[in-house]
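Materials and Methods. Structural model of Thiamine pyrimidine synthase. The 338-residue sequence of Thiamine pyrimidine synthase from Rhizobium loti was retrieved and submitted for structure prediction as follows.
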Amino acid sequence: MTDLTRRQALLLTLASGLPLIAGSSRVFAATPKVTVALDWTVNTNHIGLFVARDKGFYREAGLEVDILPYSDTGAGTLVANRVADFGINGTISLFTQKTAGADLKAVYAVVQSETGRVVFNAARGEIKSPKDLDGLTYGGFGSAWENALISTIIRRDGGKGNFETVTLGTSAYDALANGSVDFTLEVSTWEGVEAELKGIKQRSFVYADYGVPDEHTTLISSSEAYLQANPALASAFIQATRRGYQFTVDHPKEAAALLIAANKDALTNPALIDASLKALIDGHYLRAENGAIGTMDPAKMEAIGDYLFKAGILRDADGKILTQRPDFTKYFSNSTLG
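The predicted structure was written out as tokens:
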């Protein structure tokens, strides 16, 4: 049952004089439930959600929040198809999916600037710049935008942008380490930190060095349908979530402990959590140098949209490259932040 339908049911129940949940003579309204889907195996990018839940911020906002684990179906797809109310997704993923017709809208910037990069083993001395990736094998994650982005970076460096792709998902990093693939994409504040802790020597190419504008790497998105039907719930959820990330920045040790306690089976290396969180905070990724937490920079969103459009990465529902620039202001909104 959607939240809109749930509220309608409540109103009808009250109008008819019948209790929704009865106990003696008292009437109790059900706590609205919100679902949020993760974009990857649980990591420090998600910490604000768990902090907000387990510190009671969602409860104080009158919400019951269910955090859905990562699955083979992307969070953006789950949101667009009304399986989840909110989802964690990347900026490029948001832009490509929405342009292709998915009902998505970004409402919160988890990460304030770019954390992604092209990475390869440091021993590969023959790889000096992106053009040297031509003809090699990429360990990918199944999103169409990955190959398009990497190709534009290679061509920007003077290469052809031709390489083989093997879709591996979470196994890509093991494949890189054992030499099964030549390069992949990683998040510097998670996989990059983990590689350092393991003593794995890597080198990388930062997107911005090859023409890609800075971006909010990680977002929280919803659907227009949900936002229009549930404006109060959406605002309550996003504002409580921001409290979770604010608490994380101010109290990183307690936040890390909460994240680990909530995910004991998945997060078995406390040193990784601590080091990753330190990288996120010290690098001003969770809270920008100007103090922003959660707010999306319109200029930054427009810039990455323009880049994706001009690079031919954005395609319509029929898979055709866009010939007319979309109105990127419709792709995001800070309104739920209050």
